[in-house]
Amino acid sequence: NRLFLLVRYEDMHADMKGQFLRVLKHFGIVLADDAIDDIIEAVAIQAKRDSDLSKRLKSGKNTLRGGRIGDWRSHFSSANVEDFKAKANDVLVALDYERDQKWQV
From CA 51, how far away is CA 74, in angstroms rounded? Predict the structure, then answer.
């Protein structure tokens, strides 16, 4: 049994229920299907409530990112990309975010 479970944002975005089921299984938690659906629905409702960036910035729940897949491209310069490649490209490849060192902004 592993001490951790990798859950990627992109995978959650593509299949929320499937990823939630993976987490529950990892921790040995058994819930009825309707309870699982209720939890996912409650989280979705709360996420929509908290989706207004200007309100979050004022409330202290701030984030500098929009939380969209690929949004990093609007924050990274070419220099940032080259620096990141030099320091952590092997991690991106190991986690299947990139295939090699040829990725760009």
Answer: 19
Long-range Cβ contact pairs of 73-77 (< 8 A, separation 24 or more):
73/105, 76/105, 77/105
CA 65 to chain centre: 12
Tell me the chain's radius of gyration from C-alpha atoms. 17
From residue 20, give the alpha-carbon distance in Å to each of 53, 57, 78.
Answer: 25, 28, 35
Give me the amino acid identity at 16.
M
Interatomic CA distance for residues 3 and 74, integer angstroms: 34
The pLDDT assigned to 59 comes to: 67
**pTM higher than the cut 0.70:** no
**CA 26 to CA 9: how far, in whole Å?**
17
Residue 85 pLDDT greater than 90, yes or no: yes
- Residue 44 burial by Cβ neighbours in a 10 Å radius (0-12, 13-18, 19+): exposed
Give the number of other CB atoms < 10 A from CB of residue 28. Answer: 7
